[in-house]
Amino acid sequence: MKNSSQKPDWVPENAGREFTTSVMAGVDGGHDGILGQASVVVSRPLTPRRRRLTVDEYVAGVLAGDRNVLGQAITLVESNAQAHFDMGQEVLRQLLPHTGNSIRVGITGVPGAGKSTFIEALGLHLCQQGHKVAVLAVDPSSTVTRGSILGDKTRMELLSRDLRAFIRPSPSSGTLGGVTRKSRETILVCEAAGFDVILVETVGVGQSETTVRSMVDFFLLLMIAGAGDELQGIKKGIMELADALLVNKADGDNKIRANAARADYNRALHYLAPATKGWRTKAYTCSALNGEGIDAIWNVIGDFRQHVTTSGVFEKRRQRQTLDWVYSMVEEHLRASFFNHAGVGSIRADVEYAVIEGHLPPTVAAQQLIHKYEGH
Questions:
Q1: What torsion do the CA atoms of 346, 347, 348, 353 make, to the nearest 10 degrees?
Q2: For the domain 100-325, what is the CATH superfamily, name and number?
Q3: pLDDT on residue 206
């Protein structure tokens, strides 16, 4: 055994307290010589554990625009743990009087439309104008691994470095209900922190677009020229939700095609009912790559806000969205309560088998499950 003044060969020279191992004096009189004069022990990391904030500290930090506290507050309200949920709701309750002072813009697009590039270009433009911009990327989690690809900060490198911007990918835990609750509450926290423009990006196409439409004021659909007939079904479904269509990548040799696509979309929009009462949805072009058309689409959003605020549609939409939020959470709770009910679970397999085999009509099967849930 080496004496206590020596360090093992694998310990760096002059290693101080920051190193994860250290050499300490041994304990004399060890049993059968197992403990000698020197022992190597592994120390705990010296990074102090983060102190848990109180409700008042969360509220004060968010209202002061403290980015670290803002991130922690969003993590708190996203948590499904009951202790965190109760605390997060109290934080939200105290922040509510400071919310609602933003324009909420939902952004979706066909694959390859360049959503992230556009959002970064728009965000940088708004920051230069003095706005504070929060980007919330709705990123539905994998239903297999429950993980998410939260790469938005790496795809928006310039915007993520601007102190007037805040980018927050929000995993949905695999459910649109998760998107609804967590994203809505994140919007409120960001508004309380002073962000006056909230950009909500949704990935892909499908039911999540309807969900995001239900939580924003203005819904923007990004398109590309020459997408092909394979995307026509997607376009028709989502075009009815949009307050504006924007043909991206209108630069270089593609500019002529983009302008032609804009004219085609405007002709199609003429036959669709507007997504917002009193507002006519139109198509525009831009280039997120060189910035052309970015200021123009922001002016469109500004005109929209002024128009619907004057007409009263803006406030009515916000009120309806809040009530829809309440009942969507009620539905989510009742669904979870039903499928987690022990009585329902005890007969569910037999009922499903009877339906599949054609022995039991679906309506009767539903009644049996409901009666079991209600304790009849």
A1: 130
A2: P-loop containing nucleotide triphosphate hydrolases (3.40.50.300)
A3: 61
